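User: Design a sequence. Structure:
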């Protein structure tokens, strides 16, 4: 996995090392999100996917990942925001959840952070909105909230496939 783009200095208030988890932070829909670094297989530059027929609007299509088909979704659209605008900074974060591998189109990767347990907060339950349920926890960096996404909830359910079979 190439991480040259991730060498920015750590955000104030979030240690680079500590007792907490290791998260990859990124920008999507103009907001900050994070995923567990252990779910990230690689970060690749944007390439236009081949559309999939009858796919949900957030599924952009598929790209070739070294001979394998990688489905790519627009994470902003998946979270109910406007689709991600074209930009040379856009990247695809390749996520593996069990046996499933998906690409997430995001605006930009920010950093790798190590929040300590004391920094993590529960996501307030204010509505039954799907986006709220896709975030597991959150933490504050300077004045920005960073939502930690649950890949089990973000990746679309596969009909007829038990989640146990994916583990």
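Assistant: Done.
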């Amino acid at each position: 996995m190439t991480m040259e783009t991730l060498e920015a200095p750590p955000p104030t208030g979030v240690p680079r090392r500590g007792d907490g988890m290791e998260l990859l932070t990124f920008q999507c829909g103009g907001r900050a999100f994070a995923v567990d670094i252990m779910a990230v297989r690689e970060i690749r530059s944007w390439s236009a996917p081949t559309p999939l027929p009858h796919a949900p609007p957030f599924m952009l299509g598929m790209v070739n990942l070294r001979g394998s088909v990688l489905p790519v979704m627009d994470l902003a659209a998946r979270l109910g925001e406007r689709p991600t605008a074209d930009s040379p900074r856009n990247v695809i974060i390749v996520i593996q959840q069990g046996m499933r591998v998906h690409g997430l189109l995001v605006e930009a990767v920010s950093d790798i952070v190590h929040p300590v347990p004391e920094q993590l907060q529960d996501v307030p339950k204010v509505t039954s909105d799907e986006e709220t349920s896709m975030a597991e926890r959150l933490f504050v960096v300077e004045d920005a909230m960073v939502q930690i996404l649950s890949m089990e909830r973000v990746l679309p359910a596969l009909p007829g496939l038990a989640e146990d079979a994916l583990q």
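The chain has one domain: 4-166. Residues 1-18, 161-167 have pLDDT under 50 and may be disordered.
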